[in-house]
Amino acid sequence: MYDIKALYEAESVEHAVQLRQEHPEAQILAGGSDVLVQIREGRRAGCEFISIYMLDELRGVSIDEEENIRIGSLTSFSHITKDPIIQKYINVLGEAVDMVGGPQIRAIGTIGGNTCNGVTSADSASTLMAWDAIIELTGANGVRRVPIKDFYIKAKVVDIKPDEIQTAILIPKASYENCFGHYIKYSMRNALDIATTGCSVNAVLSADKKSFERVRIGYGVAAPIPVRAYTAEEFIKGKEITEENIKKFAETVLEDINPRDSWRAGKALRRHISVVMAERALKECVELAGGEING
């Protein structure tokens, strides 16, 4: 049933890096919610794997000395959703990963595996993109940090060197302080489905809550990789919180996205719902931040 060549069990991060060097063709196995299905289907026949699943040092959420929120790469989706730090500072991430699969998948699936897969439909990806996450990678030459916007290279390809493993995802204080976000997933079913399109928006309002100090918006399945709608973000910056400005912001996202036609949905539908989601999500952010939308 499981036609694999070899399975190596890492005992520490350093050991995992060593195994990566000794077995350059081996693939990392974290939670295995995607990989084990592919093995059973025969799509990974003859592969070697390095399991990092037992490395508890890569689990958990904390705030580091630089006041980054640090999420260990082996932290499960269910752990993230329930974590008090996530709930206090970036609850939208907990809400987003709570839409992944079913309870069993969320209990075993990891945030590191979700990002390292490199797929644009990953529910965590658009939110991490919108919060300027930083990917921490550890290899033979030490620790390397890569902004998530540079981590995704092309469809299913990410910036991980042959001797590296992903060890954490960081959310800088400047990204989460006084910031409120909302994620919308559009899919064929309400549960156990891959996103047709995902939209994550977050906003910082001015002190008087009458204008937008900063807005960021990330999309999944709006391009081959998760993307930000920078033109829309620049348009709304400093603007008053009005129905007209929010509507224009939503329409402007079309300048930055390029969704595909697929059996799940056509390009035209994805463009339409991307605009609708942007408007709804930003309005929700305003409400969460205690602001009011003027006509």
How would you characterize this protein structure?
The chain has helices at residues 13-22, 35-40, 77-82, 84-89, 91-97, 103-108, 111-116, 123-130, 148-151, 173-176, 230-236, 243-252, 267-288, and strands spanning 4-9, 27-29, 47-51, 61-63, 69-72, 134-139, 142-147, 152-154, 157-158, 165-171, 180-186, 197-205, 212-220, 227-228. By secondary structure, the chain is an alpha+beta fold. It folds into three domains: 4-51, Uridine Diphospho-n-acetylenolpyruvylglucosamine Reductase, domain 2 (2-Layer Sandwich), CATH 3.30.43; 60-174, Uridine Diphospho-n-acetylenolpyruvylglucosamine Reductase, domain 3, CATH 3.30.465; 178-288, Enolase-like, domain 1 (2-Layer Sandwich). A five-stranded antiparallel beta sheet has the order 4-5-10-6-7.
Strand order of the largest sheet: 4-5-10-6-7
- The residue ranges in which pLDDT falls below 50 over 5 or more consecutive positions are none
Helix run count: 13
Number of strands: 14
